[in-house]
Amino acid sequence: MNIPNTISLARLFAVPVIVWLILQQHLVPAFWLSLVAALSDAVDGIVAKHFQSETVLGGYLDPIADKTLLVCGYVTLGHEGYLPVWLVIMVVFRDALIIGGALLFQTITSTLNMQPLLISKVNTFCQLVMAVGVLGVAGFAVEDHGLSELMAYIVGTTTLASGGAYVVLWTRRAGQIVDSRMDMSREEGD
C-alpha cells in the first residue's frame, strides 16, 4: 500500500467519525476533520502524480472514499437540517447513477476505465466546499450572508452537469463498442 492509497483509506475511515460528530452536534471538530478529509483528496492525487505512484487500486479507492465522504456527509447534514433536502437527493442520486452506470458499462463492454471527467472533479470540489462551509458556518455560528444558498445552487448545477455528462459519455461509448462487436460478428459470419 503506497502513500496516496493510505491517504485515501484514511479519508474513508474518517467518514464514520465525521457522521458521528455531526449527529452529536460536535460541529467544530466535524468541520476540522471534514476539512482535513477534503484536503486529503487533493493531496493523495498530487502525491500519486508527483511520485508516479498511481495504482489501479488507487483509481478505485480514491473515488470510493470521495463518494462515501460526500454521500454520508450530505445525508447526515440533510438529516440534521443543515442542507436542503432537494440537494441531498440530487447528490445521492448522481452518485447512485454513476455507480450503477459504471457497473452496467462494465457488464456490457468489459472496458471500464476509472477516469473522472473534468466536470466531475469540479463537482466534487464544489460539494466538498459546500459541506465544509456549512459545517464551519454552523459550528462557529457565523453569518453566511446567503453564501450557503448560492453554493447549493452551484452544487446542484454541477451535480446535474456531471451526472448528465457521464450518462452521455457511457451511452456513446457503449453504443460504439456494441456496434463494433456486431460488425465484427457479421464479418465473421460472411
Word description of this protein:
The protein has 190 residues and is mainly alpha-helical. It has a single domain (3-189), classed as Four Helix Bundle (Hemerythrin (Met), subunit A). 84% of the residues lie in helices and 0% in strands.
Query: What is the chains' assembly state?
Result: single chain
- CATH level-4 homologous superfamily: CDP-alcohol phosphotransferase transmembrane (TM) domain
In total, the number of domains comes to: 1
What would CATH call the architecture? Up-down Bundle
Uncertain runs are none
What is the count of β-strands?
0
Give the helix level as a range of percent.
over 70%
Jot down its keywords.
about 190 residues, single chain, mainly alpha, Four Helix Bundle (Hemerythrin (Met), subunit A)
What is this structure, in a nutshell?
The protein has six helices and no strands. The protein is mainly α and 190 residues long. The termini are far apart.
